Task: structure prediction
Amino acid sequence: METEVKKITASETRKLRQLILRPHQRAEELIYEDDEHPDTVHFGAFIGNELEGIASLYKHIPDGIEVKDSWRLRGMATSEKFRGRGLGLLLMNRCIEHSKKMNGKIFWCNARTTAEGFYEKFGLKRIGEVFTPEGLGEHIVMIKKL
Ligand SMILES: CC(C)(COP(=O)(O)OP(=O)(O)OC[C@H]1O[C@@H](n2cnc3c(N)ncnc32)[C@H](O)[C@@H]1OP(=O)(O)O)[C@@H](O)C(=O)NCCC(=O)NCCS
Result:
């Protein structure tokens, strides 16, 4: 079946956000800051007509880095059923490509430590200490210059 990455709406991200990333949270907590901001884009990876992966991109500046043209990845997830099949790769490439197209200088995310190796494949590097947002496990800031 055909695999493709398309822009989706913020509300379309919420089902997978909840299922994969935040099963313990209520619907309103799945709305992230600036989800509806005009700079923000949400991408979906489809297999046939089914949405099986999501990633969102915000024009946000990381703490301690004074670079205005910074793009933040959030809500990156692929369905368990389709892991290891290249959907994450397609979504990441699309997000990095979009950030470059917008003349972004920095691409970054708060990464789960379990996903560090995934992000390293795209040239992101860990900065700073491990931190643990409530209920979400250990995280690190990861960053790449574009
Ligand atoms: C992390 C995640 C998005 C990866 O998606 P995926 O669709 O499995 O990724 P792909 O199949 O495109 O994998 C691309 C490459 O990354 C590697 N990879 C995938 N997940 C990895 C991980 N957690 N750690 C290290 N490498 C990983 C794959 O082996 C593959 O490597 P290869 O190109 O050498 O074969 C997915 O595992 C996921 O949704 N995890 C749960 C939610 C999560 O942790 N999201 C990140 C929040 S910060």
User: Anything to note?
Assistant: The chain has a mean pLDDT of 96. The first helix runs from residue 10 to 21.
